[in-house]
Amino acid sequence: MIFKGNRDTWIAVFSTLFILCIFQIGICVTVPGIVLNKTEQTSSLSQLLNLLGGGGLRKVSLFTTGISPYITAQIIIQMLSNDVIKHLSELRKSGERGRIKMELYTRLLTFPFAIMTSLGTISLVSGSGIITFKTFSGEIKNTFSALPLGERTLLILMFIAGTYISLFLADIISKKGLGNGITILIMSGIVASLPENFISTYNYLASDKTVNPEHQQFIAIFKFIIYLFFYFLILLLIVFINGSVRKIPLQQTGQGLITDRKKISYLPIKLMPAGIIPVIFAGSIMVFPSAIGELLKNKNPAISPFVHEYLSLNSGVGLTIYSFLIIAFSFLYSHIQINVEELARGFGKMGRFIPGVRSGQSTYNYLKSVINRINCFGAPFLAIVAVFPSFLNMTAGLPNSMSLGGTGIIILVSGAIQIMESIKSNSIASKYKSKNILLDSQIKQNTLSESSSDNNAKSFYLW
């Protein structure tokens, strides 16, 4: 048993659950000054933002923007540190001290992205009729731009504060809890919304008026079972793709070629090296046109309808742009995630090589080509998984809650894997710790017994 006699693992589990409870309580409270008219997200982009924000957009809560501004800032800092800005490149290579400074820059850059994300989110939800605004004097305003400047600023500051509070909670989970805090917070929002999505899906299937009323409930249950079958089929497919790796064999200089496959060491490269990051980054970029449209709404009223018609995920043009961004960022971020230059240099220092490939530049070119070939499958697959729910909503007219959201399933799978790995590592560390304590106590007992026997021997001789 993993949990048996493992105090550290229990502490990590309860710490994670406690932080998630605080986060979910914050999600359920709507921000003051906002009147919630309906909870269903009619826009595919607002549904994506709700997903990446950990579910805070569902109630337009303090955690509406969630951690997505921080993730966007982190991606940009990582890109710029990849030999684009010299100072950031030096920090990336300077160990723990450089990592701390880069983290500080990331959190500072989060602030402007939080402002843009807040404006874009407010534009989306107010344009969809999900919310209206209530001033301090009690007046109801239909648009954000109709609010006084002070109240608009206060509302944006509350959303920004929610982003930094979410980041603080994620840091606690990463240090004291299980897995990566950012992934776990997003995962908690997805898990919390699953029952509501399943119930609304069943209600939608049961409300079909074309079916004979006598058999309506039976047919609705049958359709819902088929829906669950496809849902778990997609889940299994994503688990398989997420766990698939391309193994590159490695040999050690001076040991001769190893022919036994069991003894050969491999460099594993995932089928989706960039993970879910391209989807998050592409979704964040798709919010910016909405934010710009909201800012320029009074000066140019034609911008906002243009953005909603052509740059949203409910249009063919918007979906095409979104797919292209996901594929482009998959190729770009995979080379940041897997630093081929450092790998090739490290193989040369350790005396390792890939059979049939020369060390140095040839190894660099080979690894780069392997990652590009993997992305030729992984990047389009990720784009299809992310775009499919929006495409289904646009063509079939299905509600957002009924769409088989592949992005959410990918986050669920990666979060579950992280939790299991964290539990296993905590269990192994606890076992080694208990063994070391037992060994130390045995050594102390042996030392005490030896010293007491020496004293007895000395006293005997002296007597």
List its salient traits.
463 residues, mainly alpha, 6 strands
CATH topology: Preprotein translocase SecY subunit
Given the helix and strand composition, which structural class is it?
mainly alpha
Number of helical elements: 14
Largest sheet: 3 strands, antiparallel
Average pLDDT taken over every residue: 77
The fraction of residues assigned to DSSP E strands is 5-15%
Please name the fourth-level CATH homologous superfamily: SecY subunit domain
Helix and strand string, N-terminal first? HEHHHHEEHHHEEHHHHEHH
CATH class: Mainly Alpha
CATH architecture: Orthogonal Bundle
**How are the strands of the biggest sheet laid out side by side?**
1-2-3
Count the domains: 1
Helix content range of the residues, please? 55-70%
Précis, in short:
The chain is mainly alpha-helical and 463 residues long.
Please characterize this protein's 3D structure.
With 463 residues, this protein is mostly helical. The protein is built from 14 helices and 6 strands. The strands form 2 sheets. A 3-stranded antiparallel beta sheet has the order 1-2-3. A 3-stranded antiparallel beta sheet has the order 5-4-6, with helices on both faces. A hairpin with a 5-residue loop joins strand 2 (131-134) and strand 3 (140-141). Helix 3 crosses helix 9. The longest helix has 57 residues, at 406-462.
Can you lay out the helices and strands and say which pair or pack?
Elements: H1 7-27, E1 34-36, H2 44-52, H3 68-80, H4 86-92, H5 95-127, E2 131-134, E3 140-141, H6 149-176, H7 181-206, H8 216-243, E4 245-252, E5 265-270, H9 277-295, H10 303-310, H11 316-337, H12 340-350, E6 352-353, H13 361-396, H14 406-462
Antiparallel strand pairs: 1-2, 2-3, 4-5, 4-6
